[in-house]
TrEMBL record:
<comment type="function">
    <text>Catalyzes the transfer of a lysyl group from L-lysyl-tRNA(Lys) to membrane-bound phosphatidylglycerol (PG), which produces lysylphosphatidylglycerol (LPG), a major component of the bacterial membrane with a positive net charge. LPG synthesis contributes to bacterial virulence as it is involved in the resistance mechanism against cationic antimicrobial peptides (CAMP) produces by the host's immune system (defensins, cathelicidins) and by the competing microorganisms.</text>
</comment>
<keyword id="KW-0472">Membrane</keyword>
<keyword id="KW-1133">Transmembrane helix</keyword>
<dbReference type="InterPro" id="IPR022791">
    <property type="entry name" value="L-PG_synthase/AglD"/>
</dbReference>
<dbReference type="Pfam" id="PF03706">
    <property type="entry name" value="LPG_synthase_TM"/>
</dbReference>
<keyword id="KW-1003">Cell membrane</keyword>
<feature type="transmembrane region" description="Helical">
    <location>
        <begin position="261"/>
        <end position="280"/>
    </location>
</feature>
<keyword id="KW-0808">Transferase</keyword>
<dbReference type="GO" id="GO:0046677">
    <property type="term" value="P:response to antibiotic"/>
</dbReference>
<keyword id="KW-0046">Antibiotic resistance</keyword>
<keyword id="KW-0443">Lipid metabolism</keyword>
<feature type="transmembrane region" description="Helical">
    <location>
        <begin position="124"/>
        <end position="146"/>
    </location>
</feature>
<comment type="similarity">
    <text>Belongs to the LPG synthase family.</text>
</comment>
<dbReference type="GO" id="GO:0005886">
    <property type="term" value="C:plasma membrane"/>
</dbReference>
<feature type="transmembrane region" description="Helical">
    <location>
        <begin position="152"/>
        <end position="177"/>
    </location>
</feature>
<dbReference type="GO" id="GO:0050071">
    <property type="term" value="F:phosphatidylglycerol lysyltransferase activity"/>
</dbReference>
<dbReference type="GO" id="GO:0006629">
    <property type="term" value="P:lipid metabolic process"/>
</dbReference>
Length: 345
């Protein structure tokens, strides 16, 4: 990690501690300790297992793509990718650092930049598509509840959906309409002429053209394997489902075993959509506030509500950062290229 990333991690931890401390301001320590001591460990382990399965399934998606396109990719290296993504998503605004970090991690495994970028692009497209699909279902089921509890938050939900949908459209343009994408890049880059030299702008646009062409060629190759794409979509859908179920199992651990699993899951989907548009890393502040307000009707005890929020953030946010730090220390295995690809190289 660079010095800047270490500073960002330190700030994120301090911010998290500050938010937790503020949330606990009206909770008596003795009551909190009592509630924590009486947690149902079995349900809490299920919630932890959901997060581990979430990371494992994303690692499986990476392995599926690399094995099919490149050669044998060890589970150790494949699982390292989503954990590093979690770390850098967690310490950068709007999770902007996750994609570059994954690319670097794949390069360390001996995967060339073009194919690594294409694989990450396809993984991201499928992931975004499944997020939008889950969101549409959650919107039909839980949006009225959110409007009733926090009408202003519904605007953020809609805005988050528009952003995610726009991202998918932009990626699909890169994948299937490269000529239009190149023209769009030139139009968008026009104002830059007033701030940078023409030579620098021309050189970088040409580099982008090469990358767009490479993305297009690789994407056409992968998308043509429709069975592969359906399999990846199914794995990704399952990955998101186990993640969205985490609050439900946390509530069970705190004794709220008769909650509506469908409504709880849908509300979590909507919260995640809101978090994604906050510029602060991890949506800190907004995530905690949204959770406590939306789940206050399910968890009526204030101490348990705050404890549920803390456990939720520890599992869905800080747990991934911790595992990502561990993944950075692991040396990846090199991908074992197919003989055919080696001859082509």
């Amino acid at each position: 990690m660079s010095r800047r990333n270490k500073v960002a991690l330190f700030v994120i931890i301090l911010l998290g501690l500050g938010i937790f401390g503020y949330s606990l301001r009206d909770v008596k320590l003795g009551i909190l300790i009592h509630d924590f001591a009486h947690i149902h460990i079995g349900w809490l382990l299920v919630a932890i297992g959901c997060m581990l399965l979430y990371f494992g399934l994303e690692g499986a998606v990476v392995k599926i793509f690399v094995d099919r396109r490149m050669g044998h990719y060890s589970w150790k290296s494949a699982l390292r990718i989503p954990l590093i993504e979690q770390l850098f998503n967690g310490i950068t605004p709007m999770a902007s650092g996750g994609q570059p970090a994954q690319l670097i991690a794949m390069l360390q495994s001996g995967i060339d930049g073009g194919r690594a970028s294409s694989i990450l692009l396809m993984k991201f497209v499928v992931y975004q598509a499944m997020i939008v699909l889950n969101f549409l279902v959650a919107l039909l089921i839980g949006f009225h509840y959110m409007v009733a509890k926090m009408s202003y938050l519904s605007l953020f939900v809609v805005f988050g959906f528009v952003i995610h949908f726009g991202v998918i459209v932009g990626l699909l343009l890169v994948m299937f309409w490269p000529k239009f994408t190149k023209r769009a890049v030139r139009i968008i880059a026009t104002p830059l002429k007033f701030f940078v030299s023409s030579q620098w702008l021309t050189e970088n646009i040409e580099k982008l053209d090469v990358k767009i062409d490479l993305f297009y060629e690789e994407s056409v190759h992968i998308v043509g394997q429709w069975r592969l794409m359906l399999g990846v979509a199914a794995v990704t859908f399952l990955q998101l489902m186990v993640y969205y179920l985490v609050p439900y199992f946390i509530m069970n651990a705190l004794g709220y075993t008769h909650s509506n699993i469908v409504m709880v899951t849908c509300l979590h989907i909507l919260i995640v959509m809101v978090i994604s548009i906050f510029p602060i890393p991890g949506g800190s502040g907004g995530a905690e506030y949204s959770f406590t307000v939306l789940f206050s009707s399910f968890i009526t005890n204030n101490s348990k509500l705050v404890l549920a929020m803390v456990l939720w953030r520890l599992l869905t946010y800080y747990f991934g950062i911790l595992l990502g730090l561990g993944a950075l220390a692991i040396k990846p295995d090199k991908v074992q290229h197919h003989t055919k690809l080696e001859k082509e190289a």
